[in-house]
TrEMBL record:
Superkingdom of the source species: Bacteria
CDD domains the record matches: vWFA (cd00198)
UniProt keyword annotation of Transmembrane helix present: yes
Protein's name according to its UniProt entry: VWFA domain-containing protein
Keyword Transmembrane helix carried by entry: yes
SUPFAM superfamilies per the UniProt record, alphabetical: Class I glutamine amidotransferase-like, vWA-like
Protein species of origin: OM182 bacterium BACL3 MAG-120507-bin80
Pfam family, one: BatA
Keywords on record: Membrane, Transmembrane, Transmembrane helix
Transmembrane residue ranges: 6-24, 56-74
Residue ranges annotated for the VWFA domain, each copy included: 90-253
């Protein structure tokens, strides 16, 4: 027990006041003269003893009451130990423990825990300690406490390092911030790490520890290391069924201090070993492996590339998730069909979208009077090429199709009229009229919305010329994606319900311009159809520490439940954690210690 106001303890002398009063006011028994004592009765000795005890108890009670008042004014502190009072120079210390992936190297983390226990053994009786761990990010394992048992329990909870990557600076900055609010003036930080070079990034700047903070870096790393890692697996996240896929490529790297000359690489699909390859790394530290296996079929594929032949197995695998989707079903409604390909409205469009087995689209063609609800409901995108108008039932079914999530591309031509269309409720604009330009005059595409996903993969330069175009009047809420050189809209976009609608100001054949003859025509058609199909394209690969969608803490393949679907995703570690090059503890000390400090040199 200690007292915050110990001077009040001198008030204990006041407990002597009742005793002094008793002694001062004590009176001797008076003498009384009796003629005869035969009429007096003797007082029992027990009664006299009881009265004495009662008087002494009352006296002690008065003294105790005064003592309690004195103790109250002295403000006793019951949750502090007497040993803390005897500790002449207690400290506030933060122990920072590196638990990143590189600490999984054989024997390194065990050495770190041994050093941590030695640190605990050397604490003074009044010291308060906090523990910070470097995993996916710098986090507080336990806040300041002077209870050794609580600190030991916190250390016991560190059973293994994480798969994450974080910088040494982030851990030191967190520890420095905690010490700013610590109890004692004597403050220190102890860092247990393998001092991986990539983890020391960011220490070259002007940031330093606060003045007065002592720093002790302790190196628990291994000088000689062997490591093979799969740096990258090259495979598209999405493939189209029936289209020849590129082979799976893997990049293998030797990143330890000792070279590894030979390695065995395996390709696993859905957990089954499909192919093995031997890799020679005699003269190089990195090599690309091409597997002969070609992905095919449909659905999702879980891919793992695994390398063997080193001492560090925790980074020997890299994962990828691939979705093999069916082709996009497209229905083309040809408003000016002809047996002569030159006059056929849909010739160029079908040639660009559905020719050959390598096309990602499955194109079905029909004419307006054969457009049935069954045809509309069986596809993902409907394209109206120079269609004059549709019947009421056809328009109603098509409108419902778009609002339910379907895509619609409308390209008017000379068969289209300016009269009110039955699809007017879902179109992003109105047809005001068509302009036939003079001979030698033409319109060109002068501007487009580069931020729109439709144009993300398209070139900047458009060289198409149009001798005749439609004048479009955009509706409220519609987006103008392309403009002609006279600033009039060339392409309008609108979201209708869950679907999308594109309206062009020109037909997509060669009758009004040379657009189909330009190299940009095919990618424009493909990107337009992909945009209208609106298939989900969420990322299928994440790195440990990504927290946008989930808290990933272990590498491998896992199923992620999204709002619209369930998807296999690959979780990999940061490749920087596989680079085992190290820096010295002295360089870390020199980089972060404040010049105002007069601390000891770092511990060897």
């Amino acid at each position: 027990m200690v007292f915050l106001a110990p001077l009040f303890l001198f008030g204990l002398l006041a407990a002597l006041i009742p005793i002094a009063i008793h002694l001062i006011r004590r009176e001797r028994p008076p003498k009384v003269v009796f003629g005869s004592i035969r009429f007096l009765k003797n007082t029992p000795k027990k009664l006299i003893l009881f009265q004495h005890l009662q008087q002494w108890a009352l006296l002690l009670l008065r003294a105790l009451l005064i003592s309690l008042l004195v103790f109250a004014f002295a403000r006793p502190l019951l949750n502090q130990s007497l040993a803390k009072l005897l500790d002449a120079d207690p400290q506030s210390a933060v122990l920072v423990i590196d638990t990143t992936l590189s600490m999984r190297y054989r024997g390194v983390f065990a050495a770190a825990l041994a050093e941590a226990n030695d640190f605990m053994d050397n604490l003074g009786p009044g010291d308060e300690v906090a523990i910070v761990v470097l995993g996916e990010r710098a986090t507080v394992l336990t806040d300041f406490t002077d209870e050794p048992a609580a600190l030991r329990r916190a250390l016991d909870s560190l059973t293994e390092p994480s798969f994450g990557a974080s910088s040494i600076r982030s851990g030191l900055a967190l520890a420095d911030e905690m010490l700013a609010a610590a109890t004692f003036e004597n403050r220190s930080i102890t860092l247990l790490s393998d001092f991986q070079a990539t983890g020391a990034d960011g220490l070259e700047g002007s940031w330093k520890l606060a003045p007065g903070v002592a720093f002790t870096p302790i190196d628990v790393g291994v000088e000689e290391t062997q490591n093979l890692t799969v740096v990258d697996v090259r495979v598209p996240a999405t493939l189209i069924d029936g289209i020849q896929a590129d082979p799976v490529l893997a990049r293998i790297r030797s990143s330890g201090s000792l070279p590894v000359e030979r390695a065995q690489v395996s390709l696993l699909i859905d957990g089954e070993v499909i192919e093995r390859a031997a890799v020679e790394l005699t003269d190089v530290s990195e090599k690309v492996v091409e597997f002969a296996y070609i992905l095919e079929g449909s659905g999702e594929r879980a891919i793992e590339v695994r390398v063997q032949g080193d001492d560090f197995i925790d980074d020997n695998s890299r994962y990828a998730a691939v979705t093999i989707e069916p082709k996009v079903d497209v229905l083309v409604v040809n408003g000016e069909a002809s047996s002569d390909w030159f006059d056929d409205e849909a010739h160029w469009f079908e040639l660009a979208s559905g020719s050959g087995v390598a096309s990602p689209f499955f194109v079905t063609s029909t004419v307006p009077n054969r457009l049935t609800p069954e045809l509309i409901q069986s596809v993902e995108v409907v394209v109206l090429l120079n269609v004059s108008d549709l019947g009421l039932q056809q328009s109603r079914v098509l409108s419902d199709f778009v609002r339910a999530g379907g895509g619609l591309l409308v390209a008017p031509g000379d068969q289209t009229s300016t009269a009110g269309s039955t699809l007017d409720s879902i179109l992003p604009g109105r047809l005001v009229g068509s302009q036939r330009l003079r001979i030698g005059d033409y319109r060109i595409i002068a501007d487009f919305d580069r931020r729109h996903p439709l144009f993300a993969k398209l070139p900047v330069e458009w060289s198409s010329r149009f001798q005749r175009v439609w004048t479009l009047e955009a509706k409220e809420g519609a987006a103008t994606l392309m403009r002609f050189d006279d600033a009039s809209p060339a392409l309008l976009d609108a979201k209708v319900g869950a679907g999308r609608v594109l309206l062009t100001a020109m037909p997509l054949d060669s009758e009004w311009g040379d657009f189909p003859l330009q190299p940009l025509y095919l990618p424009f058609v493909h990107e337009s159809l992909n945009y209208l199909a609106a298939r989900p394209s969420e990322p299928a690969s994440y790195v440990i520490g990504d927290s946008e969608v989930a808290d990933f803490t272990a590498v491998g393949l896992t199923r992620l439940e999204r709002a619209t679907r369930s998807q296999w995703v690959a979780i990999n570690s940061d490749t920087g954690e596989s680079a085992l090059a190290r820096v010295s503890a002295e360089s870390i000390f020199d980089a972060v210690i404040n010049p105002e400090n007069t601390t000891l040199a770092p511990r060897e």
